[in-house]
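Worked Example 4.2. Consider the chain below.
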Amino acid sequence: MSKSFLDRRHEQPDYEIEVWITGVRIPDGMVHWSVSVQGEDNPIEAAGILERAAEVLRDK
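Applying the procedure from the previous section yields the following structure tokens:
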């Protein structure tokens, strides 16, 4: 997650974003992951959020 996002979150605690992570197991046994970020208009900030979501998925 980008530092500027963390700074902004600290300064504006009412800042709301939603990150949805869903996984669907397909017939061959693999899992297809889908990630959606809502509430962040800045593409650089959204990319930082997606990077963090990818880290969470890797740890699962």
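The first strand starts at residue 18 and ends at 25. Helices lie at 3-11, 43-58. Compare this with Example 4.1 before moving on.
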